[in-house]
Each structure stands twice: as structure tokens, then as C-alpha cells.
Fold this protein.
Amino acid sequence: MASGGNRWRADCLGVRDGVACRAMLMILKAVHVTSVLLTFVSFSVRGAWMLSGSQMLERAWVKVAPHVIDTILLISAIGLMIQIRQYPGSHAWLTAKLVALVLYIVFGSISLRRGRTKAIRVTSGIAALVVFFYIVAVAVTHSPLPFVRTT
Ligand code: HEM
């Protein structure tokens, strides 16, 4: 793992590696991973509703909830980056995550909203899921090439 040694090196208001700092990191990660799970469930359920032509997609809360989840996901990601002192642009795995997140959003919006035919929507939905699992693999390995052995 590229930066395994940094796993517990956190920075909380200048107090490094203290108990409170570790607790903060664990809480932020729990919030981040929970919002990751929720975004996955939300995307899958809306995909199923899209395929079945359900009117549920028109409900206000169904339109708002994904934005709330994604905002929490991004805020927790920013908190985690500050704590582990790693950022897109200087750490390749985080650059890869950010670029992949943009792809996930683009494929997701084609799948749920913009795709003109069902075939385009299904193909984009599958592409979004592939990108999603790539992001998870990048997060777990801290590598932009999670499926490539480097040793
Ligand atoms: C759909 C989008 C995302 C998914 C599926 C995702 C997934 C994950 C997962 C599963 C973890 C836990 C990894 C572990 O503990 O082994 C994680 C941690 C993390 N993620 Fe995300 N993430 C996403 C978006 C982002 C974004 C956009 C950023 C910032 C550019 C980000 C930054 C981080 C950081 C800094 C950690 C902590 C890594 C550590 O402490 O070792 N994530 N992410």
C-alpha cells in the first residue's frame, strides 16, 4: 500500500497523532464510507426506478436526497484529506479519485436523466458502476492503478 505508513498520521489543529485526532479520523471515515454506501444505494434504486418507468423519480425528496448525500460525501472527503495531509494534484490516488468522481457523475446523469434511449441509459449506468468500484479500489489501495501489481 503506497502510503500505508501514513494511515494514522493525522493533523488536528496542529496536534498530531493524538487520541482525539485518531477519533476524528475514524469518525470522518465512518461518515465518508456511510455516504459512499448511501450514494451507491441511492443510485441503484433510482436506476431500477428509471428502468421500470416509476413516477418515484419525480418526487421532490428523491431529487433532493442524492445532493444531500453527495455533499456529505465531499465534505467528509475534504476533512479526510486535511487530516491525512494528502491532496489531488500532489497524490496520484486522490487525483485519480477526483477525475473518476467526475466521470461517475457524468455517466450517472446520462443514465438517470440525459440518455435518450434505454440502451444509452443502461450502458451509462453500467459504466457509472464500473467507475464507482474503481474509486473504491483506489481508496482501499491508495493507488491510481489498484489492479496492477507494482512489486
Ligand atoms: C463515489 C466517490 C467515492 C467513493 C466510492 C469513495 C470511497 C472511499 C472508501 C471506501 C474509503 C475507505 C478506504 C479505507 O479505509 O480503506 C475512502 C476513504 C477516503 N476517501 Fe473516498 N470515496 C469517494 C470520493 C472521494 C473523493 C472525491 C475524495 C477526495 C478527492 C476522497 C478522499 C478520500 C480520503 C482522503 C480517504 C481516507 C483514506 C485513508 O484514510 O486512508 N474520496 N473513500
Summary: Residues 88-151 form one domain. The CA atoms of residues 10 and 94 lie 17 Å apart.
